[in-house]
């Protein structure tokens, strides 16, 4: 199935920077109408200026997604502005890089709050509107919810315990909803990036004290992840590992899980050697 996006209303979270911002820019050529959200209004406005240059219709709707009433207002505002909602594309999230034994309950709860609870609750809120979109659309139209998950949703990576917990939970939710949502005509899609170059690591990470060697310099560009996200949406890919390294690790988890655990251990040892040598 190929999803034609022209004229469709997309609610995009995490649009202020990083992957979400690049997804907004990549969607321009598909003729969507965009509701963009995140907490920083200034960053949303600057993105809206860029999008409007190419004639894209944009609504700037700043929102802290961890607040229930703000989520409800967000969905209501999208419908008030555009009269419909056809796609929820969730790219909001935070991470924490550090060992679990020295982390805190506050970090664990903060990561779960945005990466899992907000993602789940926003999905629930959008169901009635997405179902309406399905019922009102042509026979070949299917609305969708696409979550930008992470390789951490399929593989347990040392020094990313909170992120892995939140993303495994989100993957589980998506897989359960995929079957449930059949009767609402809604597709559940997931894109799993590996390590991605961040616009601002200090805002992305609640903590940056990880003890594993990760190649941040060689990390994927957010533009390339955005391209994968848009492809997954257009071609209705249920689960897409973004980039070769991520695909390889994702495949290895299924085909040779012990080998993957060994590689993780090597990376932890490599970090320790670099920091003692
Ligand atoms: N970067 C990576 O290496 C990587 C790898 C795999 C998966 N991912 C996942 O990909 C997604 C995007 O990551 P990224 O690299 O683009 O991160 P990023 O550059 O830090 O952007 C995160 C986005 O989430 C928004 N956000 C954070 N907390 C929010 C809240 N409480 N309410 C509303 N919006 C909030 C931020 O906007 P405001 O701060 O303005 O609110 C920002 O737009 C996340 O789910 C992340 O877990 C990232």
CATH topology: Rossmann fold
Domain module count? 1
Q: What characterizes the major β-sheet?
A: 7 strands, parallel
Helical content band? 40-55%
Strand order of the largest sheet: 3-2-1-4-6-7-9
Poorly predicted parts: none
Cofactors and ligands: NADP nicotinamide-adenine-dinucleotide phosphate
Task: Supply Rg.
Answer: 19 Å
- Highest CATH level, the class: Alpha Beta
Distance between the termini: 54 Å
- What is the structural class? alpha/beta
Relevant CATH superfamily: NAD(P)-binding Rossmann-like Domain
Describe this protein with a few key phrases.
277 residues; alpha/beta; Rossmann fold; seven-stranded parallel sheet; two-stranded parallel sheet; 9 helices; 9 strands; globular; binds NADP nicotinamide-adenine-dinucleotide phosphate
Description:
- The protein is α/β, with parallel strands linked by helices.
- The protein has one domain: Rossmann fold, CATH 3.40.50.720.
- Helices cover 51% and strands 14% of the residues.
- The chain contains 9 helices and 9 strands.
- The chain has helices at 18-27, 41-53, 68-82, 105-136, 161-180, 201-204, 222-235, 244-255, 257-276; strands spanning 9-13, 33-36, 58-60, 87-90, 95-97, 144-148, 187-193, 205-208, 239-242.
- Helix 3 packs parallel to helix 4 (105-136) and helix 8 (244-255) crosses helix 9.
- The longest helix is centred in the middle third of the chain and has 32 residues, at 105-136.
- The protein is globular, with a radius of gyration of 19 Å.
- The model has no long low-confidence stretch (mean pLDDT 95).
- The protein binds NADP nicotinamide-adenine-dinucleotide phosphate.
